[in-house]
Specification:
heterodimer, A: 389 residues, mainly beta, Immunoglobulin-like, five-stranded mixed sheet, 25 strands, 8% helix, 33% strand, B: 122 residues, mainly alpha, 2% strand
């Protein structure tokens, strides 16, 4: 606990006084380092919270297929674990198994390595846009990122433990430090998803060992599903006969079965667990509120759909009256977002630019996202206003 | 234009917020709970576990703040029963739906990066 407090004190001590440029877009800043919070390894991130650490990516960084770790959003529900010697770390696998197993990091890294390029998105990404507002971190567009995650398949680990036929769900427990009487962050996924050949116990991200903020030494990686499924700082895997019962399975991370009138409450029995991500696109440029010269402008951004594939992204420059196809980027992988561009000869005037993605399941972004009491899965058509002079 | 006027003009340009900059320059690096009768008790009850920014960014109705306070008490926040209603009033009064939009600060840039919209002149 002392180490954690020292670590936190260091973080808060690094924060210096308010300056006029704090909060300005990164591309508008020069070297005003004293106007921002010093978080080593995190580059120009929107600080939603330092304690617990919750960092959002600013949209101008969504200009590459793989998001650098320094620009990758960070979501913590509670305190990060204290620094530990990786040599002392152990992952145990128990519950409905014939052989309770324990893995050191060295043993884990000796298993066959598999890589998955995955778009990881917090279920609450976009929560800040719901009206009426709902409690929680007020994420806007940037609690999402794409990285190449690598590590052994969860299926290989489970096979070593000989899962019994009674094992239907796989529970993950991390090393998060729980404050007060807050329930521990424990979640479970169905055995079918756990045995999927792309579900990993990831030790690496973009070719380097996981950083502390992203779950060192190992995290679950449940591709196409909300970020909360991919438990960080993993220490225990337990096979269960039924879904784990706990706060972060219910009432947390549940979505209404029916459309809800904004502001209404929903009974727990009228909800289901949130799993796969929605179809969604974000415009990463031009930036909202920007002023451009007339001429050729390239509207660009990202689009993803969880376990489905993006089939098209359309752009409107007239407030939604007409839609034009964007060109999808060449880089693609099953669970990864697609980059897209749309070039346009902009004449003088004020414009509302919108982007709308459609996926292989026929889902398209709606004009308004489905309000829900926890603010999950926001995916309304994205839009920016620009001025062309 | 005289040299003095030129300097004044440059200063005015430097101080004015361009239209294309989002109104985020009120972001505070160190958030504290606002003054009020319940400031100290809210600080003691809430900030033991998390920082003020998690509260300050919310814009919630009194009904939702009531649920949040009761949940946090269940999760270990120490709130005297006699202070519960006053704490809910303090939170909903300062962080209700009618309050100005919250703007979050940024972390320092690791290296100076100047980005711009992709545009080519005809």
């Amino acid at each position: 606990m002392d180490s954690r407090r020292t670590f936190l004190k260091t973080l808060s001590g690094a924060a210096v006084g308010v300056a006029a440029l704090a909060g300005w877009p990164a591309w508008a800043q020069t070297t005003e380092q004293s106007s921002s919070i010093n978080l080593p390894g995190e580059d120009g991130m929107i600080v939603r919270s330092q304690r617990f650490l919750d960092l959002e990516t600013s949209v101008e960084y969504f200009d590459s297929w793989l998001t650098p770790v320094s620009h990758f959003f960070v979501r913590n529900h509670m305190h990060e674990p204290v620094e530990r010697n990786a040599g002392d770390w152990r992952l145990t696998v128990g519950g409905e198994v014939d052989k309770v197993s324990t893995f050191s990091l060295r043993e884990l890294t000796q298993l066959p390595v598999h890589s998955v390029v995955n778009t990881l998105e917090c279920a609450g990404n976009g929560r800040g846009f719901y009206r009426p507002q709902v409690p929680g971190i007020q994420w806007q567009k940037g609690a999402v990122g794409t990285a190449r995650f690598s590590g052994p398949r969860l299926a290989d680990i489970l096979h070593r433990a000989d899962v019994k036929s009674s094992g239907k769900h796989v529970m993950f427990r991390g090393l998060d430090e729980v404050p007060g009487k807050v329930p521990p962050f424990i979640r479970s996924i169905p055995i079918e998803k756990a045995l999927d050949s792309d579900t990993l116990i990831a030790t690496h991200m973009n070719g380097a060992p996981l950083t502390k903020h992203h779950g060192f030494p190992a995290r679950a990686l449940v591709p196409g599903w909300i970020g909360a499924a991919s438990c960080k700082w993993l220490e225990e895997i337990k096979i269960l006969e039924s879904e784990f019962v706990g706060n972060f399975m219910s009432p947390g991370y549940r979505f209404p079965n029916q459309v809800v009138k904004p502001g209404d409450s929903v009974k727990p029995e009228d909800t289901h667990v949130v799993t796969g991500l929605n179809v969604k696109s974000v415009i990463s440029g031009p930036l909202d509120g920007s002023s451009l010269k007339s001429g050729q402008v390239t509207v660009h951004g990202i689009a993803w759909a969880g376990e489905a594939d993006i089939v098209k992204v359309e752009i409107s420059i007239d407030g939604g009256s007409s839609w034009n196809p964007a060109t999808l980027g060449r880089e693609q992988s099953r669970y990864a977002w697609r980059l897209w561009t749309f070039s346009w000869n902009a004449k003088r005037g004020d414009y509302l630019i919108q982007s709308r993605a459609t996926d292989s399941r026929g889902r398209a972004q709606p004009m308004e996202a489905a309000w829900n009491p926890s603010g999950y899965l926001y995916n309304a058509i994205d839009q920016v206003k620009i001025h062309v002079a | 234009m005289s040299h003095k006027n030129s300097v004044i003009l440059l200063v005015l340009i430097a101080l004015s917020t361009p239209a294309w900059i989002p109104a985020q320059n009120s972001a505070k690096l160190n958030e504290e709970l606002p003054a009020g009768a319940m400031q100290q008790k809210a600080t003691t009850a809430c900030l033991e576990c998390h920082e003020a920014r998690i509260i300050v960014q919310q814009r919630l109705s009194k009904a939702v703040w009531t649920k949040e306070v009761d949940k946090m008490v269940k999760w270990g926040a120490v709130v005297d029963a006699n202070d519960r209603d006053a704490l809910i009033d303090y939170l909903s009064g300062n962080f209700g739906p009618g309050q100005p939009e919250y703007s979050a600060p940024r972390s320092a840039q690791e290296k100076t990066t100047v980005r711009s919209t992709r545009q080519t002149s005809k």
